[in-house]
Amino acid sequence: MHNTERKKTGARKFRGFWVLIALVVVSFAIRQTEVIRIKRRIEEVKAEIDYLRISNNALEQQIEIMKTPEYIEEIAREKLGLVMPGEVQYIPIKNHTKE
Length: 99
Description:
mainly alpha
């Protein structure tokens, strides 16, 4: 092998080494970007879970209030116009006379 042939072969090997290094670096960068994206998504989902947990607790409290006899009575009186036995219900009548 001549000296110039050895130089060309060495240069090709050297260039191939740098191409390999570049591919490894690019591959690493792509994977890191994906890891960061996934971590962000995990944080978003955790925040959504926290929000839904708080909302769920508030709804459970509201359900417990709605099960109380006081609330049921209030709704029966206001929405359905019901009265307790022995009570007299007064219904206001609007005066439609014109002056």
